[in-house]
Predict the 3D structure of the following.
Amino acid sequence: MQKPQPATLLGAIMPSILPVIRDEYRRVLDLGCQRGDTLAELTLPPGAVRVGMDLDVDAVKTGVRERGAAVRFVVGDGHRLPFTSGFFDLVISRVAFPYMDMPVTFAEVARVLRGGGQVWMTLHPMRMALTRMLASLKAGRLHDILYQGYAVANGLTLAYLGRQFRFPLNRRRMESVQTLHGTARALAAAGFTDVQFERRYRGAGHQEEDARYGSVFAVAARKPQPDER
């Protein structure tokens, strides 16, 4: 597996931490879009297709009311994307992949991307989970300590075993705190190349969060063209 490099193809615009959009990105999918705020903020070429997908029905309904025809919304599961193979130029996700089985979702993302298309994501730092565990320990919230421990362990199993598992006490729940190594490994296993990253603080208005939790990861990768394989 190649070593991730600091991102150049997809930088991050502050303070929102958004991907830098190229002219050829005309079909963009946001996984875990909520109300479509991120898609609305992106600077895309005229006539670009913006598609948002989320499991939260209420958030999607709100997005439909607020965005109108500017964003096409879909209620769905990131493990089974209801889109034609090779349709999108870019797939983005802001801190939503860690709530999915990332190897499965990355394989689906690779399927719906065209050759040469890219995936871009932000991920919470490990420090956030450890800070929450410490706060829960002081407050005596044992269940939360157990759950955060599971999320950390689930990130480590991806990094070193290449797989993830559901929360044993609630099989409907899946979460992980990702390491850069684990994310890069899962992307490479799904067929992505040119895995890149950058650490970014959230910027103005988020100084307290930045000081407490540390910087977030912005990670980008590319699906090879058919003749590159």
Q: What stands out?
A: The domain at 5-124+180-228 is CATH 3.40.50.150 (Rossmann fold).
